[in-house]
Amino acid sequence: xxxxxxxxxxxxxxxxxxxxxxxxxxxxxxxxxxxxxxxxxxxxxxxxxxxxxxxxxxxxxxxxxxxxxxxxxxxxxxxxxxxxxxxxxxxxxxxxxxxxxxxxxxxxxxxxxxxxxxxxxxxxxxxxxxxxxxxxxxxxxxxxxxxxxxxxxxxxxxxxxxxxxxxxxxxxxxxxxxxxxxxxxxxxxxxxxxxxxxxxxxxxxxxxxxxxxxxxxxxxxxxxxxxxxxxxxxxxxxxxxxxxxxxxxxxxxxxxxxxxxxxxxxxxxxxxxxxxxxxxxxxxxxxxxxxx
Length: 292
Fold this sequence. Notes:
Layout: H1 3-19, E1 30-33, H2 41-49, E2 53-58, H3 63-80, E3 84-92, H4 96-103, H5 109-115, H6 122-136, E4 140-144, H7 147-156, H8 166-169, H9 184-191, H10 200-221, E5 227-233, H11 243-250, E6 256-264, E7 280-285
Parallel strand pairs: 2-5, 2-6, 3-4, 3-5, 6-7
Antiparallel strand pairs: 1-7
Helix pairs in contact: 3-6, 7-10, 9-10, 10-11
């Protein structure tokens, strides 16, 4: 056989080997629909690209969720370009100015990180998102209520928000908050249940003001024709509650995709009881290394 034919044969063999399924591998995750059907990552990306808002619920220390957040941000940027926005629970609304100054090159990375009240796992889990957004001109919105205000609700009650100045109230949802306290996520905090809640109305309201504020700043920055990708703990959108609930209360016509993350001993199927948690479920082995 000639050298040229040898090369062609060798190249063809490599291509064939790449196309054949590899057996014996240990998958790092499996992706399911909300009904428990296996689904491809590419299909999820296609659906997300057609949505107005994507609510990506993570387990905060799950490395696979964080990796997929970055991959989804990159892939949506390829599809949406300047029509993509991002935002996250991990950044508080009163720090938006600092975020914007950093993105505009007006302050250094060191000063940005010193002043942003960053989560302890920022370096490993959220910095890649921020830096990709900065490098590619993707607006990044700090959506969460400043923690001091949520803490005041927990300590003193919902009405305490009325005592803050008008300047302070710019960093929270519109006051006179009304919401369905019977939703399972909030009811569990009030009187027990799967969340083990026993904090009463103040704990429930403190959670609701976070969800309502995140929804408020998502909508304040969203524009028709764009896609807003938001990152947060899964609790804030699981079962189409939390942020999802407040978004739909304000605009029922919004197209919203929800993603959630679950750790399971076996990932070959979705555990019973997780159906309808979200539109897409990322299922990760329970013994996966954690980021903290």
